[in-house]
Amino acid sequence: MQKRDRADGNPFQKQYTEGRRVFTLLFVHWMDTNCWTHPTLIQLSRAALDGASWLHSSTISQLRHGNLHSPGPRVFLAITELNRCIHEYKVRKRLLPNTTTDRLYLQAYAITEDGEPPAPGWWFEVFCGTRLPTEIDLGQIFHTDDAASSFSRQWARLTRKLLAVQGYDVVDDLSRAIRDHYPAGDDERLGKLADVLMGRATWTPEEAQLELPALVQMSTSLGGPETQDDLLTELG
Fold this sequence. Notes:
With about 240 residues, the protein is mostly helical.
């Protein structure tokens, strides 16, 4: 008799795995829409928590890549409180605690549920797969390798044109152009982005999905399509 606790057949394991995948998409979307690097997110979360250092670069990286299987409660509390503070700024222009400028959170994009920033339990339930966000579409767009590869090549062509219009040489100025306009700071993602842009690589479906928010920000910064729908329409 097969054991029900096998990872490939246990419904709870499948639910948990799907929850981690959705949480990854949600977390990446939140970070990249706000144009936050790892150091920026760490600094802002510390400000929101009155100096408590509950988010670290390794934790952020694992959350972004779906590799953190059991985050502690302080991780959910830190995300919740920063998201609440960002919502307060967006709605009431109230600066984050312990800050004197809004320079690091001008985008002011907060995750909401029924128009309000959700409580820690909501984030935990999303991570566990027992709840799906209702105010943000995190559905998979790229279902096959061919679709992701086609998107990669089309995005690279469009972005090279946008860079040329802005006066960048795609070879000599590549590093500066990426630094100036791409919001994420992960070394692994930066290297892959450069390879895709130069036609040396393509994204997988999962990578393309995770990159979309950052690519929209980069496109907007370069004077191209300013929304996900506009970018996907432009790329056909």
